[in-house]
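Appendix B, record 7
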Amino acid sequence: TSWEPPAAVAPPAAPVLPEGWAAHQDAEGRVFYANASTGETSWEPPAAVAPPAAPVLPEGWAAHQDAEGRVFYANASTGETSWEPPA
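Structure tokens (predicted):
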């Protein structure tokens, strides 16, 4: 039989930080988190903010993005479009 050395273990992935937050190291090498917009700091990673849930659309409607990244809604059957989610 042949012996294989254990595979290298990757270090834990850095947390995904919410908008405005960044990770920094203090003079002792400890990681802390800071929000430049609010001035808030934390030793613990800030909780990620979940994106808003996509609306449930009526049959025939679909969400699309325009060239500027804005979401609009279109009904392929009727040709109707709307910036607001249809009811």
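Remarks on this record: Strands lie at 21-25, 31-35, 41-42, 61-65, 71-75, 81-82. The CA atoms of residues 34 and 41 lie 4 Å apart.
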